[in-house]
Every structure is written in C-alpha cells, then in structure tokens.
Amino acid sequence: METDDRTLTEKGLAPKGQGRILLLACGALAREILDLIKANGWSHMDLHCLPAILHVRPERIPDAVEAAILRHRADYDEIFVVYADCGTGGRLAALCARLGVEMVAGPHCYSFFEGNAAFAEKDEVDCFYLTDFLVRQFESFIVKPLGLDRHPDLLEMYFGNYRTLVYQAQTDDPALTEKAKAHAAYLGLAFERRLTGYGELATTLETLR
Amino acid sequence: MSDEEDDIILSELNDEDLVAQMFDDLYDGLKEEIEEGVNILLERGWEPYDILTKALVGGMTIVGHDFRDGILFVPEVLLAANAMKGGMAILKPLLAETGAPRVGKMVIGTVKGDIHDIGKNLVSMMMEGAGFEVVDLGINNAVESYLEALKTEEPDILGMSALLTTTMPYMKVVIDTMIEQGVRDDYTVLVGGAPLNEEFGKAIGADAYCRDAAVAVETAKSFMARKHNQGATA
C-alpha cells in the first residue's frame, strides 16, 4: 500500500487486515504512526487512515470516522481513533463515546505533538502551525483550498492577524526546515522551529496493549 | 469569460439589466464593476438604501445561498464580500445622510484567544447591509471588552464568534458573566463559528447559533421583530 503524501491526502491508507487493534487515523499522521509501529515492533496494531484532506472540511470527519468504525469493528478486538478534536467542536468525542471507542486527547495534532498541557500553557493566539506533513503538503492544505494560487490578494484577509509560523518538526530534516521557512516567508510571517518528535502521539499509542 | 461579456458597458444597461449584471459581478467578486454600478445607480437617482438592498444585498444573498449549498467556497465568498465592501464604502456616508431605516444595533467580536475574523467580518457586513448598525470589537475580546461595549453602545444584539474548539467555550464565560451582572436578558445573544452547532449554542445559554452570515441576518431580524411585537403588546 502506498504511503506517499498525495495518496494519504486524497485517499488515505487501507488496513492490512492483521493485528488486534485497528488504529483509525488521519492520513496526516500515517508516516509517524507507521514509524512508531515499526520502531516499537507493535505487531498487534494495524493502521487505517482516512484522507487527510478531510481537515479542510472538519464537519465531515465524524461521519467518515463513524463509517470506518462500523465497517471494520467486527475484524478487530479494539479500534482506537487517532484524531484529536480537529475542529469538530466535540462531535468526534461524542461519536466515540456513543460507539464505545477511545480517541487521542487534545484539540488537534499541533497540541499533542507538543504535549497538550504544555501547548495550552503557551496560549499562542497569533501562531500558525505546520507539522512535517503540512510542510510537505502546503499547496494541498493551504494554498489551493484558500484560493491563494488564484487570488494572492486574499493573503492578508487570511493571515493578517497571525504573527509567527511555528514549524513543529517531528523529524530533524534540514530540507523540510528550509521548506517551512519558505512557507513562512510566503505568508509574511516570522518563523520558528520546534523539534517536537512524536510527543503524546507516541506516549498514547504505547498504552494500547 | 467571453469577449461578449467583456464588452458589457454598464452605463448602457437599463436599471433592471444593470442590477442583474451587478448580481453577476458580485458573484464574480469584481469590485471595480460593483463600484461603477453603484455610482451609475446613484446618478440615475436611486436612493442609497435601495441600491444597498436591491443590488448589493440581493446579490450577496445569492452568494450566501451558493456557499451554503457547496457551490461556492470561502475564497469566492471573500472576493464577493470584498466587492460588496467597495460598494458599501460609497453608500455608507450617503445612508447616514439620507436617514435610512435602522433595523437594530449589534455589538460583535471574536472571543478571547481567537484571532480569526473572516466569518465575523462577513456577518458584520451582511448585518450592515440589512440595516443594522454594527459595532465591531475586532478579535481576541475578553469578557470585560464585551460588557463595556454593551454598556456604552446599548445594542439590541450581542454577536460572538470563534473558530477554534479551544476558544469557543469562552462564549459561556461571557454569557455567565452577563447573567451574574443581571443583564443577560437585556440582549439577544447570537453565536457562530465553524466548530459550533445548535446544541452548543443552547448549552451555553445563547439565544441562537447562526450557521452562516445569511442565517445570522435572518435570525437577528426575527428577534428584532419579536422584540417590537412584545413592545407593541406590553
């Protein structure tokens, strides 16, 4: 199964059909989760990703997650949802509670990568965050959906209130850092890089036995 | 766009065709054409209020419906809003001079911790277009800012906006403080923003959740009508 960014963005990733626990995740987290599974030898886990582009219309995430849970729940002992709230306004948490499924804590991946408590403490209202995935998929998630390729004059309306682009680096990759810097310049924002690693994504998945 | 469309000369169109063309231009986000259309209608003796409601708000309502129905997306709506803003900039001083009817007054702002204002700005503009006086508090508003504005501006409606799951609970802080101070029932409280829903609006004690700018205008009008009816029967 392909794990290139474009496929993860548009189609997601199908499960392999092995293991006791199915991780039902956002495509934006696929590489990180696969890396954790491999590094830790978590053979009891399988991964199924929904298309990452769902984030552009977060109101559609709960329905997509529900359909996937209902489709796969008979094949696994447990399903764990690897989405945070992700702009669903509590609807995803309500869905998981209704279906008796656990999910990652926190408002979004920017928060759990840094650690939810630490992120909340920072209270950075004028920061715009990018992860490794979003740095790579900047065109698909920022430029095109916001119409900036067709109407660059809208930039100020979207980003005029932001001050800094924070690149939360999951991996130490100089080429990605350069890309992130270029994205900050394009948006007219100051640049900051934080090496977060996998943060609470790793510690949460570790608890699944 | 075809050559034929490029060749349209707005001043040569009759009123009906010009308004129809302005609907199209608004839909396409053509600010200069909208400004030109507004000036032509003014020269023809149209009342500023009629231009606002019949040409601009009428056109923007179509944009709002197509956004709701998934035909238009945020960038196109913003371009349309920008075009409407151009027309309103011409009309606003004239509306003040000609004493256009005022439907009500609204104080609106994005809540503390949140700097997102695109939706709020659309609501402000559409409310103004519908004849409301709007006092826009901007972004990142603490409860004190809202309460101060309620006191000094004496609006009919308080509007609060939030884009983030993490900031939307602050709306309850504002409403609870209004209750504590015994002023909650003096205002209609409308809330909106991408992660909100009707259930959330009810849970925090707002009068209504508004899904988009067009719904906000209709909801605000309906609350104002109720208020007037209550006044008439009191």
From TrEMBL, chain A:
InterPro entries documented for this protein: DUF1638
Domain DUF1638: residue ranges: 49-204
Protein name: DUF1638 domain-containing protein
Top-rank taxon: Bacteria
Organism: Thalassorhabdomicrobium marinisediminis
Pfam families in alphabetical order: DUF1638
From TrEMBL, chain B:
B12-binding N-terminal domain mapped to chain residues: 9-103
An example Gene Ontology CC term for this record: cytosol
Pfam families named in the record: B12-binding, B12-binding_2
Superkingdom field: Bacteria
UniProt-listed SMART domains: B12-binding_2
UniProt cross-references to PROSITE patterns, sorted A to Z: B12_BINDING (PS51332), B12_BINDING_NTER (PS51337)
GO biological process, one term: homocysteine metabolic process
GO molecular function, one term: methionine synthase activity
CDD domains (alphabetical): corrinoid_protein_B12-BD
Residues covered by the B12-binding domain: 103-234
Keywords for the protein's UniProt record, in alphabetical order: Cobalt, Metal-binding
Family listed: Belongs to the methylamine corrinoid protein family.
Protein name per Swiss-Prot or TrEMBL: Cobalamin-binding protein
Organism: Thalassorhabdomicrobium marinisediminis
